[in-house]
């Protein structure tokens, strides 16, 4: 198979609630795919299911045999009272050589941070260290759940530029969850809008021009947008065209 990860008819439940239903998904080598959608729409659940951290209630997820995944979760709590240097953090859970750690920090633009306490890093530095850690395994695919959360606009733009450089250098595919719609649109090969199901997907250009997408994310809001869940279901297609369906935007 050429796809790195495939999901067919994937549904995931949390307790009695079906959080995701009928998801068809693929990601190919070297692709940058971004998942957007309102809070609680199942973005983190989807990436966790694709990795195998959440069981499928229905459907199936297939990963290419031997696939190496570099995963940066949405939340990683590190106790501020626990002394731990960046260098030590990079060796958890698996020890890495000094040369390997240095190369990864260099690659993510923070070569001087090895001796620093992890709890004292800025948000942007911490994200770059997390990315360095994810790169240590030389992954076929990087999976980043809201990697620029809490970063300012230059920090966010810089981080996405770094992601593109890493993709260009290593050929790794990238699957991201993000709320930074404007940057996401330019940095992604494909955007998937999720709302419990895939309600919209396509190339950034095609999706951005789709009236449905504009309705979904709002116009004239200076980047602010609001999305509301809808409770009807319908078929979704995977095509190169935007396949937005009738969502309701309230801006
Ligand atoms: N471990 C869990 N147990 C029960 N319910 C959960 C669990 N994790 C997530 N949920 C619920 O599943 C739904 C989807 O959550 P998920 O975190 O996947 O959404 P999301 O799109 O990533 O949200 P956000 O943008 O706020 O990060 C939410 O209603 C959430 O409350």
UniProtKB/TrEMBL annotation:
Domain ABC transporter: 5-220
SUPFAM superfamilies, per the entry: P-loop containing nucleoside triphosphate hydrolases
Origin superkingdom: Bacteria
Keyword Cell membrane: yes
Ribosomal protein as UniProt keyword: no
CDD domains: ABC_Metallic_Cations (cd03235)
Pfam families cross-referenced by the UniProt entry: ABC_tran (PF00005)
Alphabetically ordered keywords of this record: ATP-binding, Cell membrane, Ion transport, Membrane, Nucleotide-binding, Translocase, Transport, Zinc, Zinc transport
One of the record's GO molecular function terms: ATP binding
Record protein name field: Zinc ABC transporter ATP-binding protein ZnuC
Source lineage: Bacteria, Pseudomonadati, Pseudomonadota, Alphaproteobacteria, Rhodobacterales
């Amino acid at each position: 198979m050429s796809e790195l990860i495939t999901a067919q008819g994937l549904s995931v439940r949390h307790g009695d609630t079906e959080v995701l239903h009928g998801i068809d998904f693929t990601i190919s080598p070297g692709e940058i795919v971004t998942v957007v959608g309102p809070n609680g729409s199942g973005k983190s659940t989807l990436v966790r299911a694709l990795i195998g951290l959440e069981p499928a209630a229905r459907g199936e997820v297939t990963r290419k045999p031997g696939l190496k995944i570099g995963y940066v979760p949405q939340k990683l709590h590190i106790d501020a009272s626990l002394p731990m240097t960046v260098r030590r953090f990079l060796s958890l859970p698996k020890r890495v050589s000094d040369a390997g750690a240095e190369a990864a920090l260099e690659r993510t633009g923070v070569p001087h941070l090895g001796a620093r306490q992890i709890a004292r890093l800025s948000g942007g530095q911490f994200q770059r260290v997390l990315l360095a850690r994810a790169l240590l395994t030389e992954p076929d695919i990087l999976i980043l759940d809201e990697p620029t959360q809490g970063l300012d606009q230059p920090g966010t733009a810089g981080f996405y530029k770094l992601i593109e450089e890493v993709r260009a250098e290593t050929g790794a595919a990238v699957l991201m969850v993000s709320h930074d719609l404007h940057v996401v649109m330019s940095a992604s090969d494909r955007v998937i809008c999720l709302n419990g199901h895939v309600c919209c997907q396509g190339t950034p250009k095609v999706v951005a021009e789709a009236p449905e997408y504009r309705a979904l994310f709002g116009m004239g809001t200076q980047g602010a947008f609001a999305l509301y869940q809808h409770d009807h279901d319908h078929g979704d297609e995977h095509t190169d065209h935007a396949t937005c369906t009738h969502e309701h935007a309230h801006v």
